[in-house]
Amino acid sequence: MSNATQSVAAARINSLLDANSFVEIGQAVTARTTDFNMTEKKAPSDGVITGYGVIDGSLVYVYSQDASVLNGTVGEMHAKKIAKIYDLALKVGAPVIGLVDCAGLRLQEATDALEAFGEIYLKQTLASGVVPQITAVFGTCGGGMAVVPALTDFTFVEAKKGRLFVNTPNALEGNRVEKCDSASAQFQSEETGLVDGIGTEEEILGQIRTLVSLLPENNEDNDSFKECTDDLNRVCDDIAGCTGDTAIALSRIADDGEFFETKAAYGQDIVTGFLRLNGATVGAVANRSESYDAEGNKTEVSDGTLSARGARKAADFVKFCDAFEIPVLTLTNVTGFKATLCNEKMMAKSVGEMVHAFASATVPKVNVVVGKAYGTAYVAMNSKSVGADMVYAWDTAEIGMMDASLAAKIMYEGADASTLNEKAAEYKELQNGIASAAARGYVDTVIKAEDTRKYVIGAFEMLFTKREDRPSKKHGTV
Fold first, then answer.
1. Does residue 5 carry a pLDDT above 60?
2. Nearest CA among 248, 218, 194, 9 for reference residue 96
């Protein structure tokens, strides 16, 4: 292969990192095996460039697979170079970023490649919850290699050339790639819950830089702050109209209007992502019933319920935030659980995982009820009863068992319309009103929508030194 082709892996690293900051490690490493005439094949760096550099001044470790060298296949020394990067990252406490473009395991090295590849799984598992891990797929990432992004915290896939799969589309019974391209970036981002974003190579590298700037370097680093020049008491005049698409509401609350959404195409009834409040990174989880495109056109409307996919997405995100001491903000606007056969298959399990994630998280947790909060779906969404430290509610919000009209129909079955309307109004006043929830301490403060930013900033500042004792155990099992 030509040097121009070979330099793609290095070019990706140089585009990702601050200028002239990359230091390569293991440049002279090459394959050990002599089987199948491997000694005659040139394999510079054994097909992967590894080293370290900085992003906005923060240290990161990087590996970039070189598809021009033996098709980027993973051999023994290739895998050991990646494992070495993980060893250094764990010692120092810095994120690991993998730039993947790989044709799979190297057949010429068989068990040596398999054994070394297993080391990558082990190192990723040891690093989980200790340092952030990010994967970007620019070419093929198939078979056992597809488990690598699954063991990291965030995954991005190049929209046109990125291929992510365990089994190729044509290997699936009854399927062909023309029918359903299950390896495509779009399919993986919408259907699997693994992919955080897709785009061009340039867009993905930019997203990773932004993400790294928001994250702590490790689970003991609490210095991921940025000086805030935005008014801490800024009034959010138009936020009341954003209860449908809460990604927009979160951008209104955030410092300088910047919100970084994760897994935007998956489980779209839940929004997850990061924002800064008074310069500190906060993780956000919010219900969503409307979606808009970049031009402001409404692209999707749902019934305001929580899906199994949304619950699973929220659970994974809260677990990450808790592991890295990132406070969690929730915006609640949910009417129940999505009632479809597909959702019912995984609903209880997924909601259980979400409840466990919220309840077991010891980071500061603030909930703002911005719309309807009905039934156990509301309870599951970081309510006071499952451990929220502070709960606010907009003065237009509702908290209760269910919609007042439906409750009246159940309690007064067979009554005429006039009676049902009267009882529905009574039920709404007595059971769904914010006043009744606040009177019982389920809501700490009733606020105006436009004052949300100053209240949540104040709450997180108050909770900054939060400490919480939990029962002694190895880990939960949910």
1. no
2. 218
